[in-house]
Task: structure prediction
Amino acid sequence: MHPDHEGNGRHRWGRQISVDRIRSARFGRTTIGRRGFNEDEVTDFLHRVAEEVSGLEAELAQVRAENARIKGALREWQSQSGEARTLLGGAGTSMEAINLLSRAQRQIEAQVAETERYCRQREREARQRYEEIVNNARQHAREDAERVVRAYRATAGNQYSPEGERAERTAVWLNALLRSLDALAAHVDATRRTFAVEVEKLSEPASGSWAFPEGTAPPGAVYSSQYRQ
Amino acid sequence: MDVERLKWSWGLAERIGDEAALHFYSTLFLANPEIREMFPIGMAGQRDKLLSALGHIVSHVDATDELVPFLKQLGRDHRRFGVVAEHFPAVGEALIATLAHFLDDQWTEELAEDWAAAFGVVAGVMNDAATEAGQTSPPWWDAEVVAHERRSFDVAVLQIKPHYRLPYVPGQSMAVQCHLRPRQWRYLSPANAPRPDGTIDLHVRHVAGGQVSAAIVHSVHVGDVLRLGAAVGRRLTLSPRADGLSASSRAVAERDLLMLAGGTGLAPLKSIVEQVAAEGGRRRVHLYLGARTERDLYDLKGMSQLAYECPWLRIVPTVSDDPHAQDVAIGSVVDVALQHDSWLNHEIFVCGSEAMVMGSVNTLVQRGVTPDQIRYESFQRPVE
Result:
């Protein structure tokens, strides 16, 4: 996250998007004559949601991979500890050590693949839902606006003006779009809850696995620096 | 070196496939833990690349005309991963140990010598090409993000400024890495012809499951630094300038252009349009700009401005799946283009998703366009 990110005024919702903040989000109205709501602000807001989900996905993938690696290495270490330590201590590489490392790599990849499938599915759903919401909102807004404009024309009489008609249309359009944000908020809420549960499941076994006596790290751990950024 | 024996022994290892590649990397990493850090966590894609590169090398081992350019490119490309001369012997040892393991009692002294000799030649060519490239260019370019604009739900347009000039020809692409996804690379094309100030525009779509693209679209900000490899690819570049060519070559090089862009496939085509402009706008360009919905036409404003400035450029925005679309053509880019002309005398560039490109090429060929009129990128990338 860029340090200027919070203060530059583009993202007024800050780093974490909570559902409450989504619900209380307010979008500025543009001047009459243009579209009825500030499209940039709504788009910007949707991007913040996407960013949040994407960040959680990356976090989740890393936690899971790390976790699998540690669990796999620990299991191997416990079952073959004496043997493996001698093997790794030697100058050459033995078949057992090679096979051990290969198995650990396979375990990590199974976890990574599972996480990727999960994320891809979530991303597709998010995109689909976004399109549904936007298309529905446009459709409803257009229908509502036409209805109101017909009524305005019928009742305005001498008061009729093109500006008045546009203002009526704009107001209806805006309201219809704001209503659709409720649907979006509910969707994001559900997505967030899913991720929270996943992350919680992972947090427990990961802690404490590093408690190895000095000099006896499990075989996989020599590569731990790859996770540093 | 006995070529037949070499190919036969590779055939045995190739049948074992992924398991052999896994064994190779475990051997390599166990003996040289520092090399592990040069690779991503998941290695499945890496193993595929290793097997396909080795397969290509062994099957062309007696066709040096083809093999040498491949190895040179492979050597130059490995510079961005931080590969140096000292790494080659370690790779050779792990490779030979792996082959010996799987060939078991079929492994002989002669085979060991064949493979050592072959690997020596391969490593020599790769390393020489890397050293040669090192005299004129850095192993990678770091580039600061100077602008980042999200244009639609999943597309961002960035401007980056490499710390050193990064040479490229419009239509080429480079591997791009983002600090948020270490050791993962994705190929992107500049969307502009080279500029005096060296800045490069990138059009990036967040593809579902795409790690690098997700980070670049949603999480990268102005001031962040991306890492880029050297520009590669000649499939989407314009034929050389007509000056100094024979009359018949000039006729080909001066043909008018049809461009079919799907989504961010616009980027390399926009770059080529700028090149045509820089060369005096002597070729007419018809650019069909395709997207799913009107909202996905993320660069309509920029392209319209370009068309306004360039009388030889015609832009046709097209959407395939938008019930609310207004003022744009409806349908796939290739179908809309074929409603306007048969394009039998144009040089044709197609860029977009694999489905869009392959679908467009097939349709054009069915409608009488000759395959050598059409330029598009292959979706197989053996050299990575």
